[in-house]
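Good day; I would like, with your permission, to put a structural problem before you. A protein sequence and the structure tokens that stand for its backbone fold form the material at issue. I would ask you to consider whether the tokens describe a fold that such a sequence might reasonably adopt. I set the record out below, with my sincere thanks for your time.
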Amino acid sequence: MVLELDPAWRTHDDYLGALDAKYRRKFKDLSKKLAAAGCVVESLAEITAHEQRLHELYLAVQGNAAVNS
């Protein structure tokens, strides 16, 4: 999966602003639930050091998705 980033997006809020209202609302609702559960979202400074594990997690999510493209 490749997510092409618009060069105008400089922040996460820029990305969220580009989403359809339906998806933006779903994200905000999920964010509230995650925060209530004590979860946090952080930037990963050294992403290459974690790329293998991130790919494993992605494949696990994709494998369990109801619809795979």
Summary: The longest helix spans residues 21-36. Residues 15 and 56 are 25 Å apart (CA to CA).
